[in-house]
Write a structure and sequence with these properties.
The structure is a homodimer of 463-residue chains.
Chain A (H helix, E strand, L loop, with lengths): L1 H5 L3 E5 L3 H8 L3 E5 L9 H8 L4 H14 L3 E7 H5 L5 E4 L11 H13 L6 H9 L4 E4 L5 E2 L11 E6 L6 E5 L15 H25 L2 E2 H8 L11 H15 L6 H12 L6 H13 L10 E7 L2 E6 L7 E4 L4 E4 L12 E2 L3 H4 L14 H4 L3 H11 L3 E10 L5 E7 L1 H7 L5 E6 L7 E7 L5 H11 L3
Chain lengths: 463, 463
Amino acid sequence: MTELLRREPNVISAGLGLLADAAERQAARVTRVDWKPPMTGVEDDLVTVVGDPRRVAANAAAVERMLGVRAQLVDVLPARAALGLSAGEFLHAGPPVTWDRASGPLRGAIMGATVLEGMAGDPQAGAALAERGAIMLDPCHAHGAVGPMAGVISPSMWVFALEDPASGRRSYCSLNEGLGKVLRYGAYSADVIERLKWMSASLGPLLQAAVRAGGPIDVTAILAQMVQMGDEAHNRNRTGTLMLLRDLLPSLVQAPFPASEVSSAVAFIGGNDHFFLNLAMPACKLALDAARNIPGSSMVVAMARNGTDFGIQVSGTGDQWFTAPALTPEGLFLGSYGPADANPDIGDSAITETAGLGGFAMATAPAIVRLVGGSVSDALATTRRMYEITLAEHPLFQVPALEFRGTPAGIDMTLVVRTGILPQINTGMAGKVAGTGQVGAGLVTPPAEIFPAALRALALTVG
Amino acid sequence: MTELLRREPNVISAGLGLLADAAERQAARVTRVDWKPPMTGVEDDLVTVVGDPRRVAANAAAVERMLGVRAQLVDVLPARAALGLSAGEFLHAGPPVTWDRASGPLRGAIMGATVLEGMAGDPQAGAALAERGAIMLDPCHAHGAVGPMAGVISPSMWVFALEDPASGRRSYCSLNEGLGKVLRYGAYSADVIERLKWMSASLGPLLQAAVRAGGPIDVTAILAQMVQMGDEAHNRNRTGTLMLLRDLLPSLVQAPFPASEVSSAVAFIGGNDHFFLNLAMPACKLALDAARNIPGSSMVVAMARNGTDFGIQVSGTGDQWFTAPALTPEGLFLGSYGPADANPDIGDSAITETAGLGGFAMATAPAIVRLVGGSVSDALATTRRMYEITLAEHPLFQVPALEFRGTPAGIDMTLVVRTGILPQINTGMAGKVAGTGQVGAGLVTPPAEIFPAALRALALTVG
């Protein structure tokens, strides 16, 4: 000790900088370690879970299963047939929610869907139906499905069916309607319903014919390519949409439909840069569902929002949702809309971040800052930060700007709790008043408190 | 002076580091200026040209005219009609060249074209024809046209016609055949000729019908978008090709052709990531032709290679070519090919670099290093370096990775001569033996000596 004091001090400081500052003022050499304490009150559960002898192997298995899935578009068909939905059964985004707690955009989408289904003459009558319990609501996630924003899937809507050829498992998602005034953002005006009717009457059957004739389309392969072409597969799906169109075309133009109908369909798909989102999402869902229910695994397998609550599911805790009130995104607004118009975070689309895309892959899509705000260096920093809370680097989703490093994939909730770094999500923003539609796009995180809650539940499973 | 020596020395050093090194060894504070002398023997001409009172306004006009052009695809038609080519008249890439000096790939392409045109029964007979002067050769550039690699355009080939709506001027380019064994790389086997025949009999007429029915396609707008999606429009045209397909589709599927023929066409275009190159090139040609013939301007308006010589044309010196032997690219090779198989640099495609794309835009297309070699940081550094020799930042070609800075556009040959920095071109590599096809892709520059020669010619125009 005396020996130590005789030599030049060499200070290594972790945590708060008070001591380091003082030592530096006395001209000592100081090395600062970037360290923060874990979230408050989680120490015991963290010790239990990190010490769980099952954990390392369980997380390795979760990663391996997630990365092993290839998602192929194998069919397009009505939700009635694909998901066994009966009249009055509607699916929605996020964790379970009832009409009385539903947000404006979710209510708007449900109201519109009642009109589409012929259950109500107008949206207000649909609201009355829902009010008196005539609509059965259940999360998409509970049915192997996902839906962007409100995520409402009603029986007559058509859905994409994706399949993992190795396991035969399937996932489902609605067809994308475009931007602005659309049902998934809570709009329900006559043109919204008209478009949905055309999608069920013409677009869906045409896509079905093309996919059935042309054979499976490798959605995972398109995802791998688009990540090298400026898309992060959540709010940029421009090249993904174009590649889908390219792959569908040879059979689309030979489908037994009038040329004018084919022409309308390709113009609709080509005119909607987000069309591919509804294939990216179920591809991520299919990958993450493979990693569910592994005892001891702390990997997050779903992040989803219903506009009221944000919920996560974790591999080692089965189908249990850990929820808290959803935060409101910050970002850029359309037209004259502003922060006061924005509904809290909504949609199943955070499944992309859960799988290593979206906000986690922003480094590969610097142009996205024009949509969601921030600078290009923020986008790069976001992806770099997400490596701190993930278990793997996705071997197929390579970021050229990071010298082809794979995107950070597979959120380990113990790392979130340990570092306090929250998953970064980029997202569209819905108007909070039912019927409004999209008001902007921005950035958001889950509410921090759901991670300690999930950790507690996992800790209780440790023997 | 005595006063100076009494104070602490503060050295600013330019050029060689000898003096700076010595001063630093004596603990003086040294600021090094990154300075190199100009190219050898150019001092007098540089003084003349830089002192030319016309120069600043002339270059400003050249930039303004180049940036003011919008290139629209307005028609697709046979070269016979578009360019007035008669039987036996062939266009080729680069500055003028005769058969006896022509490189292997250019000879191969000419030989194949004689078979396509029905002038010869086989490629060898075609060579004999050319040998005895039966083929009239002229540069594409002299006819408002450009062609990638060998760039051979013969009368029966179909070409894209691009038009600048403000001026009514047009430019032309052949249709892209794909990669590997193709005529433009000097291959002439039966399948190459078969494909070209199909392109003239089916693809060309179908594209003509689609463009004429659907109306002009804004090629400049597609270029602006693809630069934000990982394409640099020379060796990456993936999203450009997909956007072209998207824009053509609605009228393509309604064209009065059998569905099977439409299906083959979209599969061909969709299966060839380089299809859009042949629209990017004439769009650049159209922009640069607007900047020709401005007295006193030192802006480069064409860089082109015929496989033997590399040539440039400069605005202030009219149609005069300044040429020297082309260098051989360095990069990555296909299959078992190696450096010994590569022909010297060939093609009109360096028109993309001349307009601020290709090698000049590599920062926006980091994935290109997988094709042409180098690292992602090299790609970023290349674009940054090209700002040193260019007059403008292209307002439409914005690089997200550089916080949306415009690409370096409009090469000023006085800056090239002054700094010694040569334009960076990325390019495909043709096999040097006629008939081979593509052997790789890589990086190359013009031979340095053409710039002092062009400077001398411009200096002679100064009154």
